[in-house]
Every structure is written in structure tokens, then in C-alpha cells.
Amino acid sequence: MRIIAGTKRGMHLFTPATRETRPITDRVKESLFMILRNYDLLAGARAADLFCGVGSLGLEALSRGAVSVTFVEKNAEILAVLEKNIAKAGFGERSRVVRDSAFRVGAPIQPGGERYDLVFVDPPYADSREVGSGSPLADLLHILEGQVVPKGVVVVRTHRDTPPLNDYGAFHAVDRREWGTMSVVLLQARADEQSTSGD
What we know:
Blueprint: H1 26-38, E1 46-50, H2 56-63, E2 68-73, H3 76-89, E3 95-99, H4 102-105, E4 116-121, H5 136-144, E5 148-159, E6 167-168, E7 171-179, E8 182-189
Parallel strand pairs: 1-2, 1-4, 2-3, 4-5
Antiparallel strand pairs: 5-8, 6-7, 7-8
């Protein structure tokens, strides 16, 4: 697993011995980031990487011009590897690491901080078998309504058998892709929806 493009192009990432992570392949990551570039979602973005594992998506975003990334992961062993990857890339000043369940805290905003332009949501498949109203994913997106800027984008990866819905409160699907066993959906916050939930 490596950073594909940008200032840290070709840098290989440390990976943990545990099988709890579900890394995205380089081919799929490259395709996803081409889409994000087409939506002008990278340069200068404030991003968050939820269920981040070793930080593959967030570090790729930093390499490609994101101004900052908040990484959220609850597993201490995996977090130790994430912090090694952040240090190796030299992204310490642009990174914030939160040890918690993303289902509980979403993408935490620092006091007085700005909301996020881009959020990656990549839970284990076992935690995204339900995507409808009242599901953990739906509840997380409700939290994110208060943490994402108007017209900000949330990228959700699930199994292709359980793709996210088209609408979750303030969010509406603007792009859908399938690669192998996965479904990737870009959900954009409506410009006229500025919920304060989660602040």
C-alpha cells in the first residue's frame, strides 16, 4: 500500500499485523481520487478520514493538496501504525488523530474550528450491512450534517450488496461507482441545509 500521487508520491505505508483493516487497492484509490479531483475537492480542503485504519485515504488527500486531515480510529494498535505513517510522510502539523468510534463522534471539530469540505467514511463491511433509516450509517451522517460545510462531500464505501441510499437528511448522492465487491458513493450536503447538529 502506498501514496499514489502528489508530494509524497510512491511512499509505502506501514501496515499492521492485524486483519481488522480493509485496505483499498491502489487501482481503486487512484480511480476515486481522479473523481475527487474532477469535483475540485482536494486542493485546500479540510478533510476527515473516519475508520481510517493506517490512513491511506487521508494521507493521499494530504499528498494531493488537502490543507489538513482529522483521522478517526478506535483501535490502539492500528493507531500506532497510523502515527508512524503520518511521521514518515512529514504530515504531523497538518494531521490530527482522534481515538474514538467514528459512529459516536463523526468528524470532530476543534473549538472554534471550521467544518470539513471532504469526509471519507469507510467502516468495516460488518458495520455497514444496514444503510437505511435508523442504521449506524444513517446516524453517522446525521452527526456529519453539523460537521460538513454546505456543498461539502462525504465519500462512503460499503459492500456493493448494501449501497447507501440517495438521500440522508442534508446529504444527496451525486456520484455512484462500483469496483469489485465495493460500492462508493459521493454524498453532497445541500447548500440550503446548514444543520447545527453535532457542533
